[in-house]
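As a representative case, we now present a protein record of this kind.
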Amino acid sequence: MVGQLPWSHLAAAKLVTVQRIAGPPADSCRPDLVASSDTIACYPALRVERAPQGKWVVQLLDLLSQWDWVMGKQGAHAKFDPALGVHFQGDSLNVDWVLSFEPFSTIMRVGGKTSAWAVVPTAHRLPIFELMRRAFGDDHQLVARYVLEERQQLKESGQGDTEAWRGSRFPQRSSLGPEVSLSYEGCDCADAPRVHGPSPCFDLAPRITAAPPPTYPEFAKEALIQGRVFLHVLIGSNGRVEAIKVFRGITGLNDAAVDAVRSWTWEPARRADQAVCAWIEVPVDFHF
């Protein structure tokens, strides 16, 4: 039970949406405050999608129901950094589940007010990342974190690291292609990017801290041009965008995508707890 809502009630929600959160929340969204506007809507959204079909929602709720929830907002981490959200909506049903990577914790809001919070158990990190990766399969940060969690689990299980995960019991990992590249051949950021697999150049991928949406060119709208532009982006060790190359473009949308990503702010990649530069692949969506 969270508040007075059983998990089965959430599983029966008429509409479930997943939200990729970018940037800090409004003051009214902080877990140490309670306000009528304290809902998932006041987190800036990088993307909002319907939850994946099938048993995705039930699998998420099955994990949530196993955690040690602390009722109320008291004791919730003051530095809660929202990264993902799930909204359950229906007749008299307005519940938000919000996940933070740093610290790895979660809060549940019922009717706009923080109802409970929990720390995500270490054993459930990989399953949570797998569910989120299924919801946002082209999100380079989620894929990077999934790979790191997978490698750590393999280490702890004594199955090794560098090559073991390639043939591990996580078959979805082997299907990753260029669209979700984490980095590029060679750790010298002056090199031209060449797509390869998980990066030996950093332990933690760059993280978006603010991502204003692109400006949709009017002529492109009139011409009914839409789709996804893929960019190769160099994030410097200072967190600034140093260079951008159009990897897979769409005529009429490329310049708008480049302009948008130039305005984004980042936390740099890290290796051995040191900030380093990194090439990453960034998708930019244009849809009516």
Remarks:
- Residues 31-38, 160-183 have pLDDT under 50 and may be disordered.
- The chain is about 20% helix and 30% strand.
- The chain has two domains: 7-121, 177-286.
- Residues 109 and 166 are 38 Å apart (CA to CA).
